[in-house]
Structure prediction request, 307 residues.
Amino acid sequence: MTDQIHVAVLMGGWSNERPVSLMSGNGVADALESQGYKVSRVDMDRNVAQVLAGLRPDVVFNALHGVPGEDGSVQGMLDLMGIRYTHSGMVTSVIAIDKELTKQRLVPAGIPMPKGTIVESESLYVADPLPRPYVLKPVNEGSSVGVAIVKADGNYGNPIAREAKGPWQEFDTLLAEPFIKGRELTVAVLGGKSLCVTELKPKSGFYDFDAKYTDGLTEHVCPADIPQDIADYMMELAQRAHELLGCKGASRTDFRWDDELGRDGVFVLETNTQPGMTPLSLVPEQARQMGISYEQLVDLLVKEALA
Prediction:
């Protein structure tokens, strides 16, 4: 009986993604309560270990996004406390949030990813690290936080001006990657199996933080209108990335696809170990497409964590 199971839904925190985490967490808590679970909503602060020790939950539903909920810190704390939790464990979380470590794990196993280089932000004011267009992103942030596309005709300057607003003002080091033209797609994995492929069509610009979480800014085409062999290939890659990284629960792997190159134009960008659970989020949407309701989805994640 679910009313015998006490779930602490951990949400909020202090990352850039706090507002999204609160939306995810409250959605999860509502869904669990509707099924008879005993639910405690925990807006994480620095006393989170003390709070959880007092609550003594059977399981924590980790609805945090970004650092420290997604980088292994919270996972390590829960491991030490002996509390079971949803989604991936500490080692997987440490690797998956770091884009360079992820490449070191996936690329040797044959997962196609853009070639990148770590650059000091100060060096960008002297010269471009790659031919334009290229992408700059923080090494360990999620939800497209701090991503900049540097184009030949962009307004950042050439070289990038020190006063130009961008991630170089917030982070000492950045990952530089070639810009892959084409289409933005994503695949959710649940219980070790890929669900389907969604294409993301931002109304303007690219699929950044605002486009992800503001209603009406991005069209979701689910399932994506792409050739079946490309869809099958992406689903295979997402499932392999999930396995290679050691993910648990739900993950979501993001792709760019240059459709002029067919299969050779498919590139994995990253695997998210803490995918959003908001009304606009992609994992619940793909689950619905496969006949799994939001309530069933969160129930599955809790039961996997308990198992």
Summary: The CA atoms of residues 13 and 45 lie 6 Å apart. The longest strand covers residues 193-202. The two ends are 15 Å apart (CA to CA). The chain is about 30% helix and 25% strand.
